[in-house]
């Protein structure tokens, strides 16, 4: 059993009067792929965004409970350096969101901010673009605006941009739902290739995808007006013999 | 039968409405053409007499002089250009800073008031600004640089800067507000600090809107008359320093049109034409940019 990259206990997220997520306990195993599944509005995204404090950006959002990184850093502690935290816990969003500037600038901005030496940046860009299979496609047009790339390329660029900062954990927030099936497959393969190198937490509505890539699965469900975790464990076990009645119906495609 | 008659009646009403609306649209568009035509007609005697060259070759502007009439407009063109650029140079940093504060730093209540005050400032009549310039700015300049006339390029620049400040601040605010939240999320997700997010992500994304604000400010400052008549000193000369008086084109027209006769009048019309042309170029550039810019942000 691998150690936990993230140790979550008693995590609740609320937006003003609305509780989005209640009392979640979950250990995210290091170097593996953990898929968060469940119907819309059951708190998966709130959970994901709490992991690197993107919830801070939402006015009126309150997070309580504990999220510990492998080295013991407490994510929810207001004293924690949130910028350094987000370097260690990166994220790829649902819609590709490259900065509408040159492809090169998309890497230079975050790398400079996190103290990479200027001379190391070109190598770093090449390494991560190779990792996501974009190097051959775009190495001769790094000066071009990133928004001229196709949707799938943009999403791979965003993944490369996140990887460039050498994170320990990468969060994926439905990374394929805005892509066509072909591009979606490419991104899925890339996520699989990250196994053992980084810890992956992925929110997906796509059950078949979760089944294909996940080592661990966590099923979220709405109970008493708030999202909560109803089932978790090794993906194989969760998909083949779920215990929770709602999870059983959901995974069989009957509900949600 | 009844229903088909109804249809033809409603078609008829629709046609008449369309026609009336087209007529009004034509009137509002035609006004500009009429204005241009009148300007051109007024300027024609000077153009026909070949005086246009004198605009740029004569050294001085003394159209009323019996002994040595001269029609050099260069001093006034320079005056207009300098005071306009100075105004934008002063207003841009302040307006931009205000917009950044409004978008990224101010608590909501303060942001709302900041915006209201800017909107109020836009509505202040220009003669009030001129008056204020005369009462406050000119004496302040006299304290800084005793022995100068006070009414000067600097005074004009400061007063105009204040007039176009809200224009630049509000357009910049709108541009920053329009930066897609997905970009700000991307910046946050990469652990960029607030300063880096503003400088490297938000400002580049808002650049088009901010530039539009600058051009609007240029056009407004270039055309402003009342305030500059009061504070610029009105001496047609190329200023040697910020403290020298100048006389922009607008002031010249306003001051001299009342008593100008025949050929002098035609020259003032020419000056007006030049001014109109400059403004048209600025406005044209703004709409050109609007159409050309924005290659599309994000998305597939």
Account of the protein in words:
Chain A is α/β, with parallel strands linked by helices. In chain A, 34% of the residues lie in helices and 27% in strands. Chain A has helices at 44-51, 82-88, 103-113, 121-131, 135-138, 151-164, 181-193, 207-213, 235-240, 245-251; strands at residues 4-15, 18-29, 33-37, 61-69, 89-92, 169-173, 199-203, 216-223, 226-234. A 6-stranded mixed sheet of chain A has the order 5-6-7-3-8-9, sandwiched between helices. A 3-stranded antiparallel sheet of chain A has the order 2-1-4, covered by helices on one side. In chain A, a hairpin with a 2-residue loop joins strand 1 (4-15) and strand 2. In chain A, helix 4 crosses helix 6 (151-164) and helix 6 (151-164) packs parallel to helix 7 (181-193). Chain A is globular. The two termini of chain A are 32 Å apart. The model of chain A has no long low-confidence stretch (mean pLDDT 92). With 300 residues, chain B is mainly alpha-helical. Chain B has a domain at 73-256: Orthogonal Bundle (MetI-like fold), CATH 1.10.3720. Chain B contains 11 helices and 2 strands; from the N terminus they run H-H-E-E-H-H-H-H-H-H-H-H-H. Chain B has a two-stranded antiparallel sheet. In chain B, strand 1 (61-62) and strand 2 form a beta hairpin. The chains are: A alpha/beta (256), B mainly alpha (300). Chain A binds chain B through residues 52, 54, 56-57, 82-87, 90-91, 93, 95-101, 105, 109-110, 113-114, 145, 147-148, 150-152, 154, 158, 161-162, 165, 178-180, and chain B through 180, 182-193, 196, 200-201, 204-205, 295-300.
List keywords for this structure.
heterodimer; A: 256 residues; alpha/beta; Rossmann fold; 6-stranded mixed beta sheet; 3-stranded antiparallel beta sheet; 10 helices; 34% helix; globular; B: 300 residues; mainly alpha; MetI-like fold; two-stranded antiparallel sheet; 2 strands; flat
């Amino acid at each position: 059993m691998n150690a936990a990259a993230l140790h979550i206990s008693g995590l609740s997220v609320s937006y003003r009067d609305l509780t989005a997520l209640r009392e979640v306990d979950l250990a995210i195993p290091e170097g593996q792929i953990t898929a968060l599944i469940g119907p819309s509005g059951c708190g998966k995204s709130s959970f994901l965004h709490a992991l690197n404090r993107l919830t801070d950006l939402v006015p009126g959002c309150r997070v309580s409970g504990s999220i510990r990184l492998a080295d013991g850093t407490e994510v929810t502690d207001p004293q924690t350096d949130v910028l350094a935290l987000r370097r260690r816990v990166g994220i790829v969003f649902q819609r590709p969101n490259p900065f509408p500037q040159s492809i090169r600038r998309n890497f230079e901005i975050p790398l400079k901010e996190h103290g990479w030496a200027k001379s190391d940046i070109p190598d770093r860009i090449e390494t991560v673009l190779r990792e996501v299979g974009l190097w051959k496609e775009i190495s001769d047009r790094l000066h071009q605006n990133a928004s001229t790339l196709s949707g799938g390329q943009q999403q791979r660029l965003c993944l490369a941009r996140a990887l460039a900062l050498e994170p320990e954990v990468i969060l994926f927030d439905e990374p394929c739902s805005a892509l066509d099936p072909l591009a979606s497959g490419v991104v899925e393969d890339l996520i699989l290739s990250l196994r053992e190198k980084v810890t992956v937490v992925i929110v997906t509505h796509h059950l078949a995808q979760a089944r294909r890539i996940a080592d661990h699965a966590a099923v979220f469900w709405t109970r008493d007006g708030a999202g909560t975790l109803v089932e978790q464990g090794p993906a194989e076990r969760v998909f083949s013999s779920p215990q929770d009645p709602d999870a059983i119906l959901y995974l069989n495609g009957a509900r949600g | 039968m009844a229903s088909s008659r109804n249809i033809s009646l409603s078609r008829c009403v629709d046609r008449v409405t369309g026609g009336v609306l087209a007529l009004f649209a034509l009137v509002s568009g035609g006004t500009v053409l009429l204005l241009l035509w009148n300007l051109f007609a007024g300027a024609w005697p000077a153009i026909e007499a070949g005086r246009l060259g004198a605009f740029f070759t004569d050294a001085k502007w003394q159209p009323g002089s019996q002994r040595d009439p001269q029609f050099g407009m260069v001093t006034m063109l320079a005056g207009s250009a300098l005071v306009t650029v100075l105004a934008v140079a002063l207003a841009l940093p302040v307006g931009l800073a205000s917009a950044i504060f409004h978008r990224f730093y101010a608590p909501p209540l303060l942001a709302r008031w900041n915006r209201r005050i800017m909107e109020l400032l836009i509505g202040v009549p220009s003669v009030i600004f001129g008056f204020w310039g005369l009462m406050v700015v000119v004496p302040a300049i006299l304290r800084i640089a005793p022995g100068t006339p006070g009414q000067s390029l600097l005074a004009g620049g400061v007063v105009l800067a204040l007039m176009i400040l809200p224009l630049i601040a509000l357009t910049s605010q709108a541009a920053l507000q329009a930066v897609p939240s997905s970009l700000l999320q991307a910046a946050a997700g990469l652990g960029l600090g607030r300063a880096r997010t503003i400088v490297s992500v938000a400002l580049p994304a808002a650049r088009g809107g901010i530039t539009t604000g600058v051009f609007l400010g240029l056009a407004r400052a270039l055309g402003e008359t009342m305030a500059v008549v009061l504070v610029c000193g009105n001496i047609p000369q190329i200023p040697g320093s910020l403290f020298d008086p100048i006389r922009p084109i607008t002031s010249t027209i306003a001051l001299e049109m009342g008593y100008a006769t025949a050929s002098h009048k035609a020259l003032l019309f020419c000056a007006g034409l030049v001014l109109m042309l400059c403004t048209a170029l600025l406005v044209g550039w703004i709409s050109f940019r609007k159409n050309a810019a924005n290659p599309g942000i994000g998305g597939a």
